[in-house]
Amino acid sequence: MREVLQLLRDGQFHSGEAIGGLLGVSRAAVWKRLQHLEDELGLVIHRIPGRGYRLSSPLSLLDEGVIVQRSWEAGWHAAVLESTDSTNSEVLRQLAGGARGPLLVVAERQERGRGRRGREWVSPFAVNLYYSLGIRLEGGSFPLSGLSLSVGLSVLGALREVGCLGVGLKWPNDLLLGGRKIAGVLLELAGDPADACHVVIGIGINVNMRADGSISIDQPWTSLRESLGHVVDRTDLVLSLGRWLRHYLDLHGSGGFSALREEWESWHLWQDKEVSLLAGTHRIDGRVLGVDRLGALRLDVAGEERQFSGGELSLRLRDDS
Fold this sequence. Notes:
The structure is a single chain. Helices cover about 30% and strands about 25% of the residues. It has nine helices and 14 strands. The strands form three sheets. It has a seven-stranded mixed beta sheet with strand order 3-4-5-9-8-7-6, with helices on both faces. β12 (about 295-300) and β13 (about 305-310) form a beta hairpin. The chain is globular. The N and C termini lie far apart (about 50 Å). The mean pLDDT is about 90.
């Protein structure tokens, strides 16, 4: 069915005869096949007699050949999947099975995509970017502290490169546009950080998702398409993100997060804001002073500076900020 999606991806009408030729079926059987495609992938296909069939919205499909070739040229192995449970999980499985890193896995959709603190990451087919990079670290030589913040700078660079100029960072792992989430980072580790381990850098970006009521997400969100007003080429975004990741991973590897601390703070949207830091049912109110050289959040709490770090923490703006 990939050939049919390639034909329909422009969002224009295409004849039943043309689609039937690709599928090897009669024109009469085309609609039944397309209904199956709708059910399987969650797409909406319109049918108008005399004009043919079209998708309700154009699609940007991932170009496997380009992604694999450009990744190989950069020294990465890459896989482009139609579907997976989670790109992070797939990378961990492949590395555990002996695959060589750096290993990039991107997918058209995720069936069980996840974000921080066990939250679901909504992953419709061929709409957003589901991206995971796995690297093997030996002997504890690569600094892990603050890595997710350095990765955030990589995502920021890629988003700004496609014209999303109002985007900024929110500690620890989110990117916001107009106060709404547009991307997030999830790091997972397998092995002993002091010896040999695998680190998976998971990145989710809302690319071409539309706020038309068809998708339910439990927090304010936006997408590149909502911001820019046009469909964004997801393959180009994969390649851009790879370039920015190589740049910032090199800087982080040589100097740690401390080398990027000032740059990160310059893009932090909540710098000097009054916030609430939540850890389970525990709440701490304070003013954001910035981050320390390891990426921990620095807060002014009742006139005293305190540092906080940890994957289970959640930061919220105060109502009066």
